[in-house]
Amino acid sequence: MPRAFTPKVITANALLEGDAVWFTPDSTWTGDIKEAELLEDEAHADLRLLEAQAQQDKIAGAYLADVKAGVDGPEPTHFREAFRTRGPSNYNHGKQAEV
Amino acid sequence: MYTYNDFDEAFVLERVAQFRGQVERRIDGSLTEDEFKPLRLMNGLYLQLHAYMLRVAIPYGTLNSGQMRQLAFIADKWDKGYGHFTTRQNIQYNWPKLNDVPDMLEALADVGMHAIQTSGNTIRNVTADHFAGAAADEIADPRPIAELLRQWSTDHPEFQFLPRKFKIAVTGSPNDRAVTKAHDIGLRMVRNDAGEAGFEVVVGGGLGRTPMIGKVIRDFLPQEDLLAYCEAIVSVYNLLGRRDNKYKARIKITVHENGLETIREKVEARFAQIRDGFTGFDQQLLAQIEQHFAEPSYKSAKTDGYEAARLANPAFRSWTDTNLTAHKNDDYAIVSISIKKHGHTPGDASSDQMRAIADIAETFGHNEIRISHEQNVILPHVHKADLNLVYQALRKADLATANIGLVSDIIACPGMDYCALATARSIPIAQEIATRFEELKMEHEVGPLKIKISGCINACGHHHVGHIGILGLDRAGVENYQITLGGDGSEDATIGERAGPGFSADEIVPAIERLIKGYVAIRQDDEETFLQAYRRLGPAPFKDILYPEKAEKNAA
């Protein structure tokens, strides 16, 4: 049996600011992972990644990251991706400071 | 210190202009990220977890007050009001915006600084003993040689696409404070039987995933042959080094795979071939460079006040006990300013602190500042009569922490709080250890101890050469910390040994506390350092302290 596909989101760094951004269902970029498109099908995920990577004037380094479906939208499952939604732990800088 | 001539200035400004054009073309879509990435890396610009990061070279860790003020200005104008001093004697800005970076580079060029070759497979910032030019134990100031190497390696057409990055460190002292044996080339100034100064040349050292202590390729190299010999080493490596596998591409692997003898033969052959091409111009240049590194005009003043202040103020006395090093001039001292206040981020200085350091250096320190690979700031020349005033000024800037060389003087890489390569966080572990030992009030009792933390196997935090090394890893999606013991970055360089299974983020600080308290309990006397005790007793008792359950089981 093929291994079950872990749900994904597409994430990247914004070109000018460099901060973490996520790819939405309407092919824009958001600073809030909860607004990201939840990708549950592998073939669709690969296709969307190509579309995301084509937006070279907006982002750099797009990739697929594991998530789980939460009540309000996708949630990171790995601590690295969780840190990217917040910012560093030593200062109140980055996304956590914008809230 | 060295100041740019017209050629240097024109070169750096031209590079800034080129990069400005490259950034414009990236933003308008003419360049893809794949095309732009090598260009930005050539100028020290990385893309990290939360933002871009600009790595600025501080050649051999030497700065003047004007440069330090400019670093503060850049931090305020284009970043978040602070900078991070690194184990490579560089400074990193963690929050620049892409379209501001050309302006930042131009501001750096205004004070004779740049970010060229702080990334990429090139010869990186040449590092040196942070006490260079001041240390009592020094044969000669190694910085003129470091500057000569910097000029030779910057934009060297043959060495812009090496198999991998290449790091050179230089020391002029027998006591190695520049970790020369963990560099691609390590240069240690020595004297031959005739009393002439030359270099012991070490090659193939490095940390990272395959840590290696460098091997002596030449016992004694006359100074006038240094550049030709280094060029011979790098050109042999350029041809022989592996390009098929990034993890086997450093010269340490080339030396390991081919054997030191083969490398030596090839280097000597290449050296013989190119030596005559070095017609002595490099030595003329070196003579000019040396003039930039003339000793400061020392002042003479009575030092009685210093002793009196020490007696009168226990806090000042404690600071002088830990943060001063012997200067070659008896009336002077080398001041280490700790950037490791308990609970703070190792190596981070605010723009206000940078300006305070610049002012103090200007008033009391002959305008000289150094950055150490241990992420502290050095005032190399302070007259003893001024130490109390320096201390008071440092206190005002929250820079008077008396912990140099102690438990809380921890090296930590940025780790997963910033770095895209990291597998775990380093900074919070350093903060927690320092805070805990401040609560325990025992670090002065513990004595000299070097804890070094890396947030991934690439070992920017030098964990392999920490007396206690901590390596942060990702174990099945959870941060996990491995301890290594008995490492040493000095002239007796040793790679630490793994103690056993890793600890979770919650367990690591208690484990370190247990380890240090356990060492205090088993040391011969108060004078025996952690490293000495480890060397005397071997790893077994330390492992028993770290893993008490296992020790009990073995005893049963």
Describe this structure in a few short sentences.
The complex is a heterodimer of chains A (99) and B (556). Chain A is an alpha+beta fold.
Task: Give an overview in words.
The complex is a heterodimer of chains A (99) and B (556). Chain A is α+β, with helices and mostly antiparallel strands and 99 residues long. Chain A has one domain (8-98). Chain A is 24% helix and 27% strand. Chain A is built from three helices and five strands; from the N terminus they run βββαββαα. Chain A has a five-stranded antiparallel sheet with strand order 3-2-1-4-5. The longest helix of chain A is centred in the middle third of the chain and has 12 residues, at 42-53. The N and C termini of chain A lie far apart (44 Å). The model of chain A has no long low-confidence stretch (mean pLDDT 96). Chain B has 556 residues and is an alpha+beta fold. Chain B folds into four domains: 6-110, Sulfite Reductase Hemoprotein, domain 2 (Alpha-Beta Complex), CATH 3.90.480; 142-292, 2-Layer Sandwich (Sulfite Reductase Hemoprotein, domain 1); 304-396, Sulfite Reductase Hemoprotein, domain 2 (Alpha-Beta Complex), CATH 3.90.480.20; 411-555, Sulfite Reductase Hemoprotein, domain 1 (2-Layer Sandwich), CATH 3.30.413.10. Chain B is built from 19 helices and 21 strands. In chain B, the strands form four sheets. In chain B, strands 16, 17, 18, 19, 20 and 21 form a six-stranded mixed sheet that branches. Chain B has a five-stranded antiparallel sheet with strand order 1-2-5-4-13. In chain B, helix 3 runs antiparallel to helix 12, helix 12 (351-364) runs antiparallel to helix 13 (387-396) and helix 14 (427-440) crosses helix 16 (505-522). The termini of chain B are far apart. Chains A and B meet through helix 2 of A and helix 14 of B.
